[in-house]
Structures are given as structure tokens and as C-alpha cells.
């Protein structure tokens, strides 16, 4: 955790698993966000990463409980301070849920993205809570269903990203300046306006999508898909 002129930066730093969402990482990030929410000197939070991967999705060896992931995503949306994603590497599966939950997301042009859930026998269930209200449904259908990789320019067009550029810090500089000029009250109330529809989706669908995630991850096809992924081979259904 680092702070510069009222902006606190939280860094995902688990290079051994490419910053995958383990039970430990989800808990640590939730705790850090709670501290930021209570700190009156924090105007906004930037979520970034070490290494060449922002987040590789769920840690298949130590996955968080779906309820914990729902709680983390909702916490980002509900936090009465803007949360920004700063991405300079790859984002996969559950990591895209973090981007969807953030208020603003910027990435370098070398970043890549993919919803890989279908390729291991599951679905992007829980992460749909922040994503479906904020992204283009036709584009999302393609990338949800195929697991294709796409670039930052496509991510901007679909609404997954706010902006992209060769130097992500140059992209973020005027945004952070604007946040520093905004009043804490103004930011909090404006964010509440912007996130109201997203939170309605959480209220309506969280229980159903959490149950779906748990059911799929315990299925035979998911076991085959996760085993194939860890063994670096194609799962049995590939033709």
C-alpha cells in the first residue's frame, strides 16, 4: 500500500500464481479496501499489480468461496471512494470481474483480456454481477462464449475499460488530477448515483449466481477442465 497526494495504491503482488484470486488474496484485498474506506485522507484507490499479469482469474489450487468473491466485488462497488484499475499486463476470467467492479479502468496497449471460464467447463457467473450492467451485451456474448483473447482497444469499445494508451500512467494522470480536485462528499454521492443499477443487480442476482458458480465448479466437466489446465493439455471435449 502506498499513498501519493490522497491517492492510495493497492498492488496485487502474488507473482507465483500470476496474481490469481486465491482465498488469501481475496481476504487481504478486502481488508485493505476496508482500511481505505475508513481513512479520511484517502480520496481514491488505484488497484494495480506486479509482473506481467494483473490477475489470472480464480486460483484453481486455492479458490475463494463464491460468497467471498461476491463480497469483494460488491465492496469495490459500494465503497464511497472511487476505485481505479491500472493494468499493464494480462487479465483473465475472474480478474475481469475486478475491472468491472472498478469505477474507472485504464490499461496499456499491450494488455490482453479473455473470459476463459467456458474452456474449463464453468461460466463467468459471479463476475457477471458488475459486468453485465456496464458492458456491451453483444460483444460480451462473443467473448463469454468463445473464450477468445482480445486487446485493450476492444476492451474500451465494449465498456470493460475506460481508456488505453501506450503509457497507462499518462492515461491516468488527468483522471487522478480530476479526482484530487473533487470534494470527498461530491465523489461519494456521485459514485452512489453511478453504481445504483449495479447494486440492484447484486441484490437481485447474487444468490442465484453464487449457487450456479458453486454447482459448476463441483461438476465433472469442471474437474476435467481444471485438471487439463493444470496439466497443460486440452480437455476431453476439444474437437
From TrEMBL:
Protein name: Enoyl-CoA hydratase
Pfam families: ECH_1 (PF00378)
Organism: Streptomyces albiflavescens
Domain of life of the source: Bacteria
Single GO MF annotation: catalytic activity
Protein family according to the UniProt entry: Belongs to the enoyl-CoA hydratase/isomerase family.
UniProt cross-references to NCBIfam families, sorted A to Z: PRK07827.1
